[in-house]
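User: Can you model how flavin mononucleotide sits in this protein?
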Amino acid sequence: MEFVVLGGSLRAGSWNRRLMDLAADRITAQGHAVTRFEGEALDMALINMDRPIPPGAEAIAAALVKAQGAFIASPEYNLGIPAHLKNIVDWTSRIQPQPWKGLPVLLACATPGAFGGHRGLMPWRTTLSALGAFVCPSVVGVPHADKALAEAGRMRDERSEQALEAGLAMLLRLAAALGTVR
Ligand SMILES: Cc1cc2nc3c(=O)[nH]c(=O)nc-3n(C[C@H](O)[C@H](O)[C@H](O)COP(=O)(O)O)c2cc1C
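Assistant: Here's the modeled complex, given as structure tokens:
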């Protein structure tokens, strides 16, 4: 199967990008293909329907349409969706075929804070559900990410490790079940 792994902040040292590394490694280790969108690929003009859709948004939409599932690692900004990621959802939602429709999605957040970003993932669920995505019931929240993800390639927190494993298992199951429906 094919998966899109998308997210992180635009800053170089993004913890969410480190979380994407772990997710991408595990998905590919199970024999699946991963297409990643991060950093500059997420840095595009603000939504303005008087303007043409940016090529970067077209590329993300094309990958989502081909994929059987997506993993999104989103920072929590003021308990909400960061502007650069909401901008991408909004641009891609205007592209046909609408790429989120019927797509299994696992939501994740890494934060140095104590709450694991769960609250910031709630508006993601509202938006993606409105677009027809199948958002996994559980999410992957990584609190104290500056410690849990301090070492590249490894999660140093057992609860977050279990949440990642369980979340990815659910995403892969959902993708396998729905793969032919999209
Ligand atoms: C504008 C802004 C708002 C933030 N709001 C929250 C918040 O609501 N909850 C939280 O846990 N952390 C919040 N943070 C801290 C981020 O979790 C922290 O900067 C984190 O490192 C961002 O993810 P990144 O490491 O992928 O860049 C905020 C940071 C910024 C810049």
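A couple of observations from the model: The mean pLDDT is 97. The chain has one domain: 2-178.
User: Helpful, thanks.
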